[in-house]
Amino acid sequence: MLETEIKILEISEQEMLPRLRQLEAVRHFAGCLQAVYYDTPAKDLSRSRKILRLRFNGAKSMITYKEQLDSATAKKMHETETEVSDFNAARQIITGLGFQPWLDIAKERCSYKLGRVNIEFDKYSGRYASVPEFMEIEGSCEEDVFLYVKKLGLEHYTCRSWSTVEVLQHYGFKVPAF
């Protein structure tokens, strides 16, 4: 499936809650996520703009493969994702195939459904806890994403097409570039 997303930095769920309620957004997740990103020792995935991620949200684990597509205004990825029953077994399989973890990150996330988009508020924890809370708007196309940027009363110029790594680097963390 095609995933199109933007990030808006330094904006909180509490700040946006009145507007979300007014637009009748539905909260469908609140909890901690742990994500582990993998690559080959030669960085074959990152060199070809691909991602292999294993994520656990406290109730289920997902393995995700993404391929980055070109876009100047939003982060676009072709995404294939499936649930796995055992996070630790999936981790062992991935490393057994020769992939190595290069980023392990935890965050608190609150997710809302609003029309044709998902809105996420993320706050990193642990080593990256100093990164301020930020918002993601994710949909299947740029038109939907930017329509909801406007509906939320936000400005286009505040939108970033950044990856997790680019957000971390923006706040001074030394993380390998994707």
Walk me through this protein's architecture.
About 25% of the residues lie in helices and about 45% in strands. It has helices at about 15-20, 45, 85-95, 140-150, 165-170; strands spanning about 1-10, 25-40, 50-55, 60-70, 75-85, 100-115, 115-125, 135-140, 160. The protein has about 180 residues and is of the alpha+beta class. It has one domain (about 1-170): Hypothetical Protein Pfu-838710-001. Strands 1-5-4-3-2-6-7-8 form an eight-stranded antiparallel barrel. Strand 4 and strand 5 (about 75-85) form a beta hairpin. It contains five helices and nine strands; from the N terminus they run βαβαβββαβββαβα.
N-C termini distance: 21 Å
What is the annotated CATH architecture? Beta Barrel
| Class by alpha and beta content | alpha+beta
| Unreliable stretches covering 5 or more consecutive residues | none
Descriptors:
eight-stranded antiparallel β-barrel, 9 strands, alpha+beta, 23% helix, 178 residues, Hypothetical Protein Pfu-838710-001
What's the layout of helices and strands?
Blueprint: E1 2-8, H1 13-22, E2 26-39, H2 44-47, E3 50-56, E4 61-69, E5 75-84, H3 87-96, E6 100-114, E7 117-124, E8 134-139, H4 142-151, E9 159-160, H5 164-170
Antiparallel strand pairs: 1-5, 1-8, 1-9, 2-3, 2-6, 3-4, 4-5, 6-7, 7-8
